[in-house]
Amino acid sequence: MPSQSGPQGAASLHGGTGSTAVAHMTLINSAGTDHMGRAHGAGGLAVGLLFWLARLPELTLIAAPALAAVVAWGELPGAGRMSQAANVAVIGALAFGWAAARERLAARSRQRRIADRAAGVRHRLPEPVGPLARGRLPFAAGLVLCAVAAVAVLLGLSGIRADEQHAARSVQTTAQVISRGEESVQVRADDARRITVDAFYPEDYRVGSTVTVLEDGSWRRLVAEPYDAFGWQLLVLAAGLPGLSLLMMGGLARRRAAALRRAPVPALRVLERTDHEGRTWIYAADDTAGRTALFTCLCTTTLREDDEPADRTEAEGQHEHEVEDEEEDCSVDTRLHEAVLFGAPYEGGELVLITTDHAGDPIALHTVGPVRLPRTGKKPLLDAPAVTDTDSDTTEPEMQARTDRIAATLTPTGRPVRWGPGPVSRTVGLALTAGVATGLSLAAQDLATDGFDWGLLPFLGLSILINLAAILLNWRVIADSTGLWLTGAWTVRHVPWEQLRAAKYTNEGGVEIHRSDGDAWRLTGLGEQRLERRLGLRPSYARMTEEVTALHAHPQLRPTESSTPREHGLPLGPLLLLLVSLAITVAVTR
């Protein structure tokens, strides 16, 4: 790197041979770029370990020894006493982390063995259990990010190889620095030619100093500044670490889900309940008071492939129409239910539950997230949370009358109904995306050239605006025969009509879609309710909440056709994150 070699490295080559220049260039490259690559890799592994220790102990068993080896071989030799003590402490912490991850996996193994002995019998999953699709989305996202990281590695290696080939064919030119630019220096060669050469750190070359330039046709660079793959290294870390995490998480989820289908699994009698946060709590079969939960998880109902959601939803909608409104608001059944649990329950595992709903009908549930032990003192939320209306002065009869007026304006066509951002929202989203990309690119460029400065923190904080930009550009709500399809910045969610509780436009300018199990889907930062009322505006998101409320209260107005995945839209958060990362990479590697 120029900051390490500087113009003195170039001056030492004055009058040397071409082979000496190439050899010295190789030495600088190995001592500079490779050293920086090791530092970036070690830093990336350290950041990844913070997440893997909590969520992926399997990766910790690999990453912790790798980082310890990097520290032991790359940092300990030749370091000072204080530096050696710090590095030994880091290695010790990594050893403790590795031991903790190993013990966590051993505890899982013990939990599986205990479950096998306690069950006594094994059964295959019953017929009502449909395909277990958990893990597909993170696995696919991980593959894409890992592919981006692999391409960055190839491009970085290609740049290094091309630089070495040019340097091997190049001719040395001794020159004197006559001026400096922002990213270049101008020199005068011995034959009186004026040459402009790119420089990472022009301030390191004082005017009047002597440098050596390598020239191969139109290609030229300073001997002291070999090809720097910092930008590609940054992209490898930015895409590779989350990609590896998502790939491992998706692969483990798919593997565990497939294990439930592959062979008979332990079957245990348990008690279960669902709280108002949507979490399922599992208790021992003899704990009829529900005092001590064994574990908790997020579950959803499973469907057979030959089920007809539209017909079933229509029938359930008719049944729901006959129920009183207050009963609908309290539709979460938090009582303990007898259930049969399929699969060995262990921390991080995948399970299937056969239980009953509030009407006593049998249903099949499967986990949509890893099984977790309840935190100390954490109890299920058994009291329904209050959902207040956005206008506290509006009485219930007035709300019902307003809903009826909105319903009278709706004409049922049978086709899915769609709401999304308008032109103003998309324009603001595009401007916000451009501002975030520009600000982060400038911050990354300053970080790469001048190092860290506290003044960069406001620019680095722009990354949190990616979520808002994705929402403004492509939020979407689709109402069809099965319910609502909700597209946010990162995911697409589905809320069946029978589980919909309320649609609200809050005073803070956000949208909230509440489910009967207490869960909610939120979009924040869409507008300003008070200003819109004063100006007499009715934006699309406010109209969406009103019309969804009308469809919820009047089932006969709901669409009778189902929507296609293409109509649900694409969450733009991952795409914007990738585009901003590419913009940062281009800015850093210029």
List segments where confidence is low: pLDDT < 50 over at least 5 consecutive residues.
Answer: 1-37, 303-330, 385-393
Quickly count the helices: 16
Which structural category do the helix and sheet elements fall into? alpha+beta
Work out the helicity level. Answer: 40-55%
Shape: globular
Report the span from N to C terminus: 16 Å
Mean pLDDT: 77
Number-wise, the strands total 19
Largest sheet: 6 strands, antiparallel, barrel
What does this entry look like structurally?
This protein is α+β, with helices and mostly antiparallel strands and 590 residues long. Helix content is 48%, strand content 18%. It contains 16 helices and 19 strands. The chain has helices at 2-11, 18-31, 33-55, 57-74, 81-119, 136-169, 230-262, 309-321, 325-329, 396-408, 423-450, 457-460, 465-474, 529-535, 540-553, 573-589; strands at residues 122-123, 171-180, 184-189, 194-198, 210-216, 219-222, 265-274, 279-284, 293-301, 337-342, 352-356, 362-367, 417-419, 476-480, 483-487, 492-496, 500-505, 511-515, 520-523. The strands form four sheets. Strands 7-8-9-12-11-10 form a six-stranded antiparallel beta barrel. The protein is globular and about 95 Å long.
